Known about the structure:
Blueprint: H1 6-14, H2 22-37, H3 43-53, H4 59-77, H5 87-100, H6 104-116, H7 122-139, H8 142-158, H9 163-180, H10 183-192, H11 203-220, H12 228-239, H13 252-262, H14 268-281, H15 285-298, H16 303-323, H17 326-349, H18 360-368, E1 372-373, E2 376-377, E3 382-390, H19 392-399, H20 401-417, E4 424-427, E5 432-438, H21 444-456, E6 467-474, H22 483-505
Antiparallel strand pairs: 1-2, 3-5, 3-6, 4-5
Amino acid sequence: xxxxxxxxxxxxxxxxxxxxxxxxxxxxxxxxxxxxxxxxxxxxxxxxxxxxxxxxxxxxxxxxxxxxxxxxxxxxxxxxxxxxxxxxxxxxxxxxxxxxxxxxxxxxxxxxxxxxxxxxxxxxxxxxxxxxxxxxxxxxxxxxxxxxxxxxxxxxxxxxxxxxxxxxxxxxxxxxxxxxxxxxxxxxxxxxxxxxxxxxxxxxxxxxxxxxxxxxxxxxxxxxxxxxxxxxxxxxxxxxxxxxxxxxxxxxxxxxxxxxxxxxxxxxxxxxxxxxxxxxxxxxxxxxxxxxxxxxxxxxxxxxxxxxxxxxxxxxxxxxxxxxxxxxxxxxxxxxxxxxxxxxxxxxxxxxxxxxxxxxxxxxxxxxxxxxxxxxxxxxxxxxxxxxxxxxxxxxxxxxxxxxxxxxxxxxxxxxxxxxxxxxxxxxxxxxxxxxxxxxxxxxxxxxxxxxxxxxxxxxxxxxxxxxxxxxxxxxxxxxxxxxxxxxxxxxxxxxxxxxxxxxxxxxxxxxxx
Length: 514
């Protein structure tokens, strides 16, 4: 391509159906680099071009334009008049670029620079406030998010924006109040977003409204199961035209809680398909990372499918690393490492290392998340199992703790292959396990019988057989009992089963080592 002129760029801006090539972006970037070094005459055309391609090209290509953004901003910051109308828009592009890179510290720096400007247009201020809320949500920081949500609400009362922008602002406030758990204000803004003129509820804005409303409901009702209407809306959105509006899909803070909420109410195959669809259209590394993390951590996949998705995940990481500008390579790599360390730390904090099952903390967290009204399970057929390995003390005292570890692993394997096939299971103590079923159609007694059959076939290297005392209780039988009371009944049933085992075997579980 020959050297590009401003006339060429203006023609490109008017041709929305063109194919955008790396060669075009490099040529346009070279033109704006020269303009930033000299007169800064064509800043408006630069911003228009950046905006026109930002949602249809990869982050690696935007890097060239981002270097132009930096040059323009520096020149305007040094302007002796100090009143350049383009500066807040340049900061906005900086904010978006660093957010896409998952560099939250840099993104917040430009958010605050926009908010500190005396002459920032309301549209820039609104975008900065909404991005701040979104980033705090991504980081799970409720207190900090709450401060910016309240600040955004005060701004919304005074700003001068078209109704379309005000509706998106109200959607963000609805989502923000859902995230911090303020039910009253969440409901207020949920009603408010439906008060705008009918013509706004079409096309991209209608899609944005629907995903914000459903995603916010997932946040505020995360401890309750979605209703049939919610699942129908979820399927309609993700089978429809959600991906046609890229500006609305780069928000893992909406999508990830929504996927978690509907998990169990839609098939894993659907979740995988929808999640990969969002990954494909997203241009932000942070969202791709979070959505891949959801797939690998939360969804049951076949070994072949898991290997394929895991491979895609790491291909994405390598692609961003290999194609980022040199001055961002280490930043991107550092964010990737930080992200992976954070995920691994979270997984370790919830996992028992010996058996690779959930630990006591994961169990208690799972109990807390059971849908309940005043502690009583709501609209869910809940069954809780409590289990204890018989004879572990004898094995530890006679053959050593390494043999005892084999015993525990054998018990975990038997539980995983039977009770664990229908729900989550946990090692909650030395020889204690628990499991939680919700809306499982099979009978517990049938699965316990299957587990005890497997145990009867198990022996260790010393010829020891394996037995587990089991007790369970469910909300169907104990309709008025709280979750804690159901756990207590299951625990009592387990101890009754354990006493029966020792009476039948004629052994004293407290007998000292010979």
